Amino acid sequence: MAFRIPRGTVDLMPGEVEKWQYVESKARELCRRYHFSEIRTPIFEHTELFQRGVGETTDIVEKEMYTFTDRGDRSLTLRPEGTAGVVRSFVEKKVFGQPQPTKWYYIGPMFRYERPQAGRQRQFHQFGVEVFGTEEPAMDAEIIDLGVQFYQSLGLTGVKVELNSVGCPQCRPVHREQLVKFLTPRKDELCKDCQSRLDRNPMRILDCKNERCKELTQDAPKMVDCLCDECRTHFDAVKEYLDVLGVDYVLNPRLVRGLDYYTRTAFEFTVESKGSQAGTVGGGGRYNGLVKEIGGDDVPGIGFGIGIERTLLALEEQEVTLPIDYGVDCYLVTLGEEAKRQSVTLLKALRQAGCSAERDYLDRKMKGQMKAADRAQARYVAILGENELKANSIVVKELATGEQETIALDQFVDYVREGSRK
Ligand SMILES: [Zn+2]
Ligand SMILES: [Zn+2]
Protein backbone atom coordinates (compact mmCIF):
# COMPACT_ATOMS: atom_id res chain seq x y z
CA MET A 1 0.00 0.00 0.00
CA ALA A 2 1.09 3.55 -0.65
CA PHE A 3 0.76 6.11 2.08
CA ARG A 4 -0.81 9.43 1.30
CA ILE A 5 -0.57 12.70 3.17
CA PRO A 6 -3.71 13.42 5.25
CA ARG A 7 -6.32 15.59 3.54
CA GLY A 8 -5.88 19.28 4.26
CA THR A 9 -2.17 19.05 5.01
CA VAL A 10 0.86 19.75 2.86
CA ASP A 11 4.53 18.89 2.79
CA LEU A 12 6.53 22.06 2.65
CA MET A 13 9.19 21.02 0.20
CA PRO A 14 12.60 22.58 -0.36
CA GLY A 15 12.08 25.42 -2.82
CA GLU A 16 8.83 26.34 -1.04
CA VAL A 17 9.97 26.20 2.55
CA GLU A 18 12.46 29.04 1.96
CA LYS A 19 9.50 31.35 1.43
CA TRP A 20 8.15 30.31 4.81
CA GLN A 21 11.49 30.93 6.44
CA TYR A 22 11.61 34.34 4.84
CA VAL A 23 8.10 35.26 5.98
CA GLU A 24 8.82 33.99 9.48
CA SER A 25 12.09 35.91 9.65
CA LYS A 26 10.24 39.11 8.72
CA ALA A 27 7.72 38.44 11.49
CA ARG A 28 10.49 37.80 14.03
CA GLU A 29 12.44 40.88 13.01
CA LEU A 30 9.38 43.11 13.30
CA CYS A 31 8.53 41.65 16.69
CA ARG A 32 12.06 42.35 17.84
CA ARG A 33 11.68 45.98 16.82
CA TYR A 34 8.31 46.26 18.54
CA HIS A 35 9.80 44.60 21.62
CA PHE A 36 7.75 41.41 21.63
CA SER A 37 9.10 38.14 23.02
CA GLU A 38 8.33 34.78 21.51
CA ILE A 39 6.25 32.24 23.39
CA ARG A 40 5.88 28.61 22.35
CA THR A 41 2.92 26.81 23.84
CA PRO A 42 1.99 23.17 23.13
CA ILE A 43 0.02 22.35 20.00
CA PHE A 44 -2.57 20.53 22.09
CA GLU A 45 -4.40 21.68 25.18
CA HIS A 46 -7.27 20.49 27.32
CA THR A 47 -10.44 20.69 25.24
CA GLU A 48 -12.18 22.78 27.84
CA LEU A 49 -9.68 25.59 27.33
CA PHE A 50 -10.92 26.15 23.80
CA GLN A 51 -14.55 25.73 24.80
CA ARG A 52 -14.01 28.54 27.30
CA GLY A 53 -11.44 30.57 25.42
CA VAL A 54 -12.82 30.41 21.90
CA GLY A 55 -16.48 30.03 22.82
CA GLU A 56 -18.97 27.16 22.81
CA THR A 57 -21.16 28.81 20.21
CA THR A 58 -18.45 29.42 17.62
CA ASP A 59 -18.10 27.37 14.44
CA ILE A 60 -14.59 26.49 15.51
CA VAL A 61 -15.67 24.78 18.70
CA GLU A 62 -18.93 23.36 17.35
CA LYS A 63 -17.65 21.91 14.10
CA GLU A 64 -13.96 22.26 13.46
CA MET A 65 -11.86 20.99 16.35
CA TYR A 66 -9.56 18.00 16.28
CA THR A 67 -10.50 16.53 19.64
CA PHE A 68 -9.29 13.18 20.94
CA THR A 69 -9.14 11.24 24.15
CA ASP A 70 -5.65 10.25 25.24
CA ARG A 71 -4.65 7.08 27.02
CA GLY A 72 -5.28 8.75 30.37
CA ASP A 73 -8.89 9.44 29.33
CA ARG A 74 -8.35 13.18 29.05
CA SER A 75 -10.07 15.11 26.32
CA LEU A 76 -7.41 17.00 24.39
CA THR A 77 -7.67 19.20 21.32
CA LEU A 78 -5.16 20.26 18.70
CA ARG A 79 -5.14 24.03 19.01
CA PRO A 80 -7.53 25.63 16.51
CA GLU A 81 -6.08 29.10 17.16
CA GLY A 82 -3.25 30.65 19.12
CA THR A 83 -4.73 32.98 21.70
CA ALA A 84 -6.30 30.51 24.15
CA GLY A 85 -3.04 28.67 24.85
CA VAL A 86 -1.12 31.90 25.27
CA VAL A 87 -3.71 33.24 27.72
CA ARG A 88 -3.67 29.91 29.58
CA SER A 89 0.09 30.26 29.95
CA PHE A 90 -0.18 33.91 31.02
CA VAL A 91 -2.59 32.85 33.76
CA GLU A 92 -0.92 29.58 34.76
CA LYS A 93 2.54 31.17 35.09
CA LYS A 94 0.95 34.08 37.01
CA VAL A 95 2.57 36.53 34.62
CA PHE A 96 -0.33 38.87 35.37
CA GLY A 97 1.30 39.46 38.77
CA GLN A 98 4.39 40.95 37.09
CA PRO A 99 4.78 44.54 35.83
CA GLN A 100 2.72 45.02 32.67
CA PRO A 101 2.32 45.14 29.75
CA THR A 102 3.32 41.69 28.56
CA LYS A 103 4.04 41.49 24.83
CA TRP A 104 4.29 38.06 23.24
CA TYR A 105 4.24 36.62 19.75
CA TYR A 106 3.98 33.12 18.36
CA ILE A 107 4.41 31.39 15.02
CA GLY A 108 3.16 27.87 14.53
CA PRO A 109 0.66 25.33 13.26
CA MET A 110 -3.05 25.37 14.11
CA PHE A 111 -5.64 22.72 13.29
CA ARG A 112 -9.21 22.95 12.10
CA TYR A 113 -11.39 20.40 10.43
CA GLU A 114 -12.54 22.43 7.44
CA ARG A 115 -13.13 21.81 3.78
CA PRO A 116 -9.68 22.30 2.27
CA GLN A 117 -9.33 24.96 -0.40
CA ALA A 118 -6.73 27.43 -1.64
CA GLY A 119 -5.18 29.13 1.37
CA ARG A 120 -7.16 26.99 3.79
CA GLN A 121 -5.64 23.81 5.15
CA ARG A 122 -6.56 21.62 8.09
CA GLN A 123 -3.10 22.19 9.43
CA PHE A 124 -2.47 25.85 8.85
CA HIS A 125 -0.02 28.31 10.31
CA GLN A 126 -0.37 31.58 12.08
CA PHE A 127 1.80 34.41 13.19
CA GLY A 128 0.14 36.09 16.14
CA VAL A 129 0.82 38.69 18.79
CA GLU A 130 -0.82 39.19 22.17
CA VAL A 131 -0.47 42.12 24.56
CA PHE A 132 -1.71 41.91 28.11
CA GLY A 133 -2.15 44.49 30.81
CA THR A 134 -3.03 47.70 29.02
CA GLU A 135 -6.18 49.27 27.65
CA GLU A 136 -4.25 52.17 26.18
CA PRO A 137 -5.71 52.88 22.73
CA ALA A 138 -2.25 53.67 21.35
CA MET A 139 -1.48 49.97 21.83
CA ASP A 140 -4.50 48.99 19.72
CA ALA A 141 -3.26 51.26 16.97
CA GLU A 142 0.32 50.01 17.22
CA ILE A 143 -0.79 46.40 16.99
CA ILE A 144 -2.78 47.15 13.87
CA ASP A 145 0.19 49.04 12.45
CA LEU A 146 2.48 46.10 13.25
CA GLY A 147 0.24 43.90 11.13
CA VAL A 148 0.33 46.39 8.28
CA GLN A 149 4.12 46.68 8.57
CA PHE A 150 4.39 42.91 8.34
CA TYR A 151 2.54 42.74 5.02
CA GLN A 152 4.47 45.74 3.71
CA SER A 153 7.81 44.22 4.65
CA LEU A 154 6.93 41.28 2.39
CA GLY A 155 6.00 43.52 -0.51
CA LEU A 156 2.27 42.83 -0.32
CA THR A 157 0.25 45.81 -1.52
CA GLY A 158 -3.36 46.88 -1.15
CA VAL A 159 -3.80 45.52 2.34
CA LYS A 160 -6.87 47.09 3.86
CA VAL A 161 -7.55 47.52 7.55
CA GLU A 162 -11.20 47.05 8.45
CA LEU A 163 -12.08 48.40 11.85
CA ASN A 164 -14.94 48.25 14.29
CA SER A 165 -15.70 48.49 17.98
CA VAL A 166 -17.75 45.73 19.52
CA GLY A 167 -18.30 47.62 22.77
CA CYS A 168 -18.17 46.12 26.22
CA PRO A 169 -20.40 44.10 28.56
CA GLN A 170 -22.09 47.38 29.59
CA CYS A 171 -23.13 48.60 26.15
CA ARG A 172 -23.35 45.39 24.14
CA PRO A 173 -26.67 44.27 25.68
CA VAL A 174 -28.22 47.50 24.36
CA HIS A 175 -27.14 46.56 20.85
CA ARG A 176 -28.13 42.96 21.34
CA GLU A 177 -31.64 43.96 22.30
CA GLN A 178 -32.01 46.25 19.28
CA LEU A 179 -30.60 43.59 17.02
CA VAL A 180 -32.91 40.86 18.24
CA LYS A 181 -35.88 43.21 17.90
CA PHE A 182 -34.83 44.01 14.34
CA LEU A 183 -34.16 40.42 13.29
CA THR A 184 -36.95 38.51 15.00
CA PRO A 185 -39.61 39.44 12.39
CA ARG A 186 -37.11 38.26 9.71
CA LYS A 187 -36.12 35.10 11.51
CA ASP A 188 -37.64 32.66 9.00
CA GLU A 189 -35.62 34.14 6.18
CA LEU A 190 -32.29 33.75 7.94
CA CYS A 191 -30.08 30.75 7.27
CA LYS A 192 -30.29 27.81 9.66
CA ASP A 193 -27.12 28.78 11.51
CA CYS A 194 -28.34 32.32 12.00
CA GLN A 195 -31.72 31.18 13.26
CA SER A 196 -30.00 29.45 16.12
CA ARG A 197 -27.58 32.36 16.52
CA LEU A 198 -30.54 34.66 17.07
CA ASP A 199 -31.10 33.18 20.52
CA ARG A 200 -27.57 32.34 21.45
CA ASN A 201 -25.28 34.86 19.82
CA PRO A 202 -27.16 37.33 17.61
CA MET A 203 -24.12 39.53 16.91
CA ARG A 204 -22.58 36.74 14.85
CA ILE A 205 -25.43 37.02 12.37
CA LEU A 206 -23.77 40.24 11.20
CA ASP A 207 -20.78 38.38 9.83
CA CYS A 208 -22.66 35.48 8.27
CA LYS A 209 -21.35 34.85 4.77
CA ASN A 210 -24.79 33.83 3.47
CA GLU A 211 -25.97 36.36 0.84
CA ARG A 212 -29.55 36.44 2.07
CA CYS A 213 -28.40 37.01 5.65
CA LYS A 214 -26.18 39.84 4.44
CA GLU A 215 -29.14 41.48 2.72
CA LEU A 216 -31.40 41.06 5.72
CA THR A 217 -28.88 42.68 8.04
CA GLN A 218 -28.06 45.57 5.69
CA ASP A 219 -29.93 48.08 7.83
CA ALA A 220 -29.56 46.31 11.14
CA PRO A 221 -28.68 48.41 14.18
CA LYS A 222 -24.92 49.00 14.40
CA MET A 223 -22.83 48.37 17.48
CA VAL A 224 -20.96 51.64 16.97
CA ASP A 225 -24.24 53.52 17.47
CA CYS A 226 -24.75 51.85 20.83
CA LEU A 227 -21.31 52.37 22.38
CA CYS A 228 -21.17 53.65 25.95
CA ASP A 229 -19.13 56.78 26.67
CA GLU A 230 -15.97 54.90 27.65
CA CYS A 231 -16.09 52.67 24.59
CA ARG A 232 -16.82 55.64 22.33
CA THR A 233 -13.86 57.60 23.74
CA HIS A 234 -11.59 54.57 23.37
CA PHE A 235 -12.67 53.94 19.78
CA ASP A 236 -12.16 57.60 18.85
CA ALA A 237 -8.67 57.51 20.36
CA VAL A 238 -7.76 54.34 18.44
CA LYS A 239 -8.82 56.02 15.20
CA GLU A 240 -6.83 59.14 16.06
CA TYR A 241 -3.69 57.11 16.73
CA LEU A 242 -4.15 55.23 13.47
CA ASP A 243 -4.30 58.60 11.72
CA VAL A 244 -1.16 59.73 13.50
CA LEU A 245 0.59 56.53 12.44
CA GLY A 246 -0.56 57.00 8.86
CA VAL A 247 -2.54 53.76 8.83
CA ASP A 248 -5.51 53.84 6.47
CA TYR A 249 -8.60 52.01 7.62
CA VAL A 250 -12.23 51.59 6.71
CA LEU A 251 -14.99 51.23 9.25
CA ASN A 252 -16.85 47.97 8.96
CA PRO A 253 -19.83 47.72 11.31
CA ARG A 254 -20.28 44.06 10.34
CA LEU A 255 -16.97 43.10 11.78
CA VAL A 256 -17.88 41.30 14.98
CA ARG A 257 -16.39 39.04 17.51
CA GLY A 258 -19.53 37.83 19.09
CA LEU A 259 -18.30 36.63 22.45
CA ASP A 260 -18.63 38.40 25.74
CA TYR A 261 -14.93 38.63 26.41
CA TYR A 262 -14.19 40.34 23.13
CA THR A 263 -14.34 44.03 23.76
CA ARG A 264 -13.97 47.26 21.86
CA THR A 265 -11.44 47.15 19.03
CA ALA A 266 -12.02 44.53 16.33
CA PHE A 267 -10.11 44.56 13.06
CA GLU A 268 -9.31 42.54 9.99
CA PHE A 269 -6.64 42.72 7.34
CA THR A 270 -8.02 42.08 3.88
CA VAL A 271 -6.46 42.07 0.46
CA GLU A 272 -8.01 42.10 -2.97
CA SER A 273 -7.73 38.60 -4.27
CA LYS A 274 -8.52 36.91 -7.57
CA GLY A 275 -12.12 37.28 -8.59
CA SER A 276 -11.98 40.75 -6.95
CA GLN A 277 -13.17 39.20 -3.71
CA ALA A 278 -11.45 40.62 -0.70
CA GLY A 279 -9.70 37.86 1.17
CA THR A 280 -9.07 38.06 4.87
CA VAL A 281 -5.40 37.50 5.59
CA GLY A 282 -5.53 38.22 9.30
CA GLY A 283 -7.49 39.76 12.10
CA GLY A 284 -7.75 40.41 15.76
CA GLY A 285 -9.03 42.59 18.50
CA ARG A 286 -9.35 43.30 22.16
CA TYR A 287 -10.39 40.67 24.65
CA ASN A 288 -10.59 42.43 27.97
CA GLY A 289 -12.61 39.63 29.58
CA LEU A 290 -10.68 36.61 28.34
CA VAL A 291 -7.92 36.41 30.95
CA LYS A 292 -10.56 36.39 33.68
CA GLU A 293 -12.59 33.81 31.77
CA ILE A 294 -9.54 31.53 31.72
CA GLY A 295 -9.09 31.93 35.46
CA GLY A 296 -6.78 34.90 35.86
CA ASP A 297 -7.19 38.41 37.20
CA ASP A 298 -9.19 40.98 35.30
CA VAL A 299 -6.37 41.86 32.90
CA PRO A 300 -7.11 43.35 29.47
CA GLY A 301 -5.62 41.90 26.31
CA ILE A 302 -5.38 42.54 22.60
CA GLY A 303 -3.87 40.65 19.72
CA PHE A 304 -4.03 39.45 16.16
CA GLY A 305 -3.56 36.27 14.19
CA ILE A 306 -2.20 36.36 10.67
CA GLY A 307 -2.53 33.39 8.34
CA ILE A 308 0.79 32.46 6.77
CA GLU A 309 -0.80 30.35 3.98
CA ARG A 310 -3.16 33.15 3.05
CA THR A 311 -0.39 35.71 3.13
CA LEU A 312 1.75 33.55 0.84
CA LEU A 313 -1.23 33.01 -1.46
CA ALA A 314 -1.80 36.76 -1.66
CA LEU A 315 1.89 37.30 -2.44
CA GLU A 316 1.64 34.70 -5.18
CA GLU A 317 -1.45 36.31 -6.67
CA GLN A 318 0.35 39.65 -6.70
CA GLU A 319 3.33 37.93 -8.29
CA VAL A 320 5.68 39.20 -5.62
CA THR A 321 9.10 37.58 -5.83
CA LEU A 322 10.62 37.24 -2.38
CA PRO A 323 14.35 38.01 -2.33
CA ILE A 324 15.47 34.50 -1.51
CA ASP A 325 18.90 33.16 -2.35
CA TYR A 326 18.47 29.47 -3.06
CA GLY A 327 22.04 28.90 -4.19
CA VAL A 328 25.19 27.62 -2.56
CA ASP A 329 28.14 30.01 -2.25
CA CYS A 330 30.74 27.62 -3.60
CA TYR A 331 30.69 24.27 -5.36
CA LEU A 332 34.00 22.46 -5.24
CA VAL A 333 34.89 20.49 -8.35
CA THR A 334 37.78 18.09 -7.93
CA LEU A 335 39.86 16.10 -10.39
CA GLY A 336 41.85 13.17 -9.09
CA GLU A 337 42.14 11.38 -5.78
CA GLU A 338 44.47 13.84 -4.07
CA ALA A 339 42.20 16.80 -4.88
CA LYS A 340 39.22 14.87 -3.61
CA ARG A 341 41.03 14.23 -0.32
CA GLN A 342 41.93 17.90 0.02
CA SER A 343 38.42 19.02 -0.77
CA VAL A 344 37.21 17.81 2.61
CA THR A 345 39.37 20.34 4.46
CA LEU A 346 38.58 23.10 1.99
CA LEU A 347 34.84 22.52 2.40
CA LYS A 348 35.17 22.62 6.15
CA ALA A 349 37.21 25.83 5.98
CA LEU A 350 34.59 27.47 3.75
CA ARG A 351 31.78 26.41 6.04
CA GLN A 352 33.61 27.60 9.13
CA ALA A 353 34.09 30.95 7.41
CA GLY A 354 30.31 31.21 7.09
CA CYS A 355 29.96 30.22 3.44
CA SER A 356 27.70 27.48 2.16
CA ALA A 357 29.73 24.91 0.28
CA GLU A 358 29.10 21.67 -1.56
CA ARG A 359 30.96 19.05 -3.59
CA ASP A 360 30.31 15.92 -5.60
CA TYR A 361 29.90 12.59 -3.80
CA LEU A 362 29.11 10.36 -6.77
CA ASP A 363 32.48 10.30 -8.52
CA ARG A 364 31.12 12.33 -11.41
CA LYS A 365 33.35 13.42 -14.24
CA MET A 366 34.24 17.09 -14.61
CA LYS A 367 31.21 17.74 -16.80
CA GLY A 368 28.84 16.05 -14.38
CA GLN A 369 30.29 18.04 -11.48
CA MET A 370 29.83 21.30 -13.40
CA LYS A 371 26.20 20.37 -14.05
CA ALA A 372 25.72 19.65 -10.36
CA ALA A 373 27.20 23.06 -9.56
CA ASP A 374 24.63 24.60 -11.88
CA ARG A 375 21.82 22.70 -10.22
CA ALA A 376 23.06 23.91 -6.84
CA GLN A 377 22.89 27.47 -8.21
CA ALA A 378 26.45 27.96 -7.10
CA ARG A 379 27.79 31.47 -7.05
CA TYR A 380 31.33 30.17 -7.45
CA VAL A 381 32.67 26.96 -8.83
CA ALA A 382 36.13 26.16 -7.56
CA ILE A 383 38.17 23.67 -9.56
CA LEU A 384 40.97 21.74 -7.94
CA GLY A 385 43.08 19.45 -10.15
CA GLU A 386 46.58 18.08 -10.16
CA ASN A 387 48.12 21.20 -11.74
CA GLU A 388 46.47 23.44 -9.17
CA LEU A 389 47.59 21.20 -6.34
CA LYS A 390 51.20 21.39 -7.57
CA ALA A 391 51.00 25.18 -7.72
CA ASN A 392 49.15 25.46 -4.39
CA SER A 393 46.35 27.24 -6.18
CA ILE A 394 42.74 26.79 -7.19
CA VAL A 395 40.66 28.04 -10.12
CA VAL A 396 37.57 29.99 -9.09
CA LYS A 397 34.85 30.78 -11.58
CA GLU A 398 31.87 33.02 -10.96
CA LEU A 399 28.98 31.32 -12.73
CA ALA A 400 26.88 34.41 -13.37
CA THR A 401 29.64 36.35 -15.14
CA GLY A 402 31.85 33.52 -16.37
CA GLU A 403 34.82 35.36 -14.87
CA GLN A 404 37.59 33.03 -13.84
CA GLU A 405 40.65 33.53 -11.66
CA THR A 406 43.45 31.41 -10.30
CA ILE A 407 43.79 32.01 -6.58
CA ALA A 408 46.50 30.96 -4.15
CA LEU A 409 45.06 28.17 -2.03
CA ASP A 410 45.60 30.07 1.22
CA GLN A 411 43.61 33.02 -0.17
CA PHE A 412 40.76 30.88 -1.43
CA VAL A 413 38.41 30.94 1.57
CA ASP A 414 38.73 34.72 1.99
CA TYR A 415 38.11 35.20 -1.72
CA VAL A 416 34.85 33.23 -1.65
CA ARG A 417 33.73 34.80 1.60
CA GLU A 418 34.33 38.35 0.37
CA GLY A 419 32.66 37.60 -2.94
CA SER A 420 29.62 36.01 -1.33
CA ARG A 421 28.99 39.11 0.73
CA LYS A 422 28.66 41.34 -2.35
ZN1 LIG B 1 -19.06 50.01 26.42
ZN1 LIG C 1 -26.76 33.32 8.10
TrEMBL record:
UniProt keyword annotation of ATP-binding present: yes
Q: Name the Pfam families for this protein.
A: HGTP_anticodon, tRNA-synt_His
Q: Which reaction is catalysed here?
A: tRNA(His) + L-histidine + ATP = L-histidyl-tRNA(His) + AMP + diphosphate + H(+)
Q: Name one GO molecular function term.
A: catalytic activity, acting on a protein
Which UniProt key words apply to this protein? Aminoacyl-tRNA synthetase, ATP-binding, Cytoplasm, Ligase, Nucleotide-binding, Protein biosynthesis
The UniProt entry's coiled-coil ranges are none
Name the GO terms of the biological process aspect.
histidyl-tRNA aminoacylation
Q: Kindly list the places in or outside the cell where this protein is found, as annotated in its UniProt entry.
A: Cytoplasm
| EC annotation from Swiss-Prot or TrEMBL | 6.1.1.21
Keyword Ribonucleoprotein annotated: no
Q: How is this protein organized at the quaternary level? A: Homodimer.
Recorded family membership: Belongs to the class-II aminoacyl-tRNA synthetase family.
Q: What is this protein called?
A: Histidine--tRNA ligase
Q: What is the lineage of its organism?
A: Bacteria, Bacillati, Bacillota, Bacilli, Bacillales
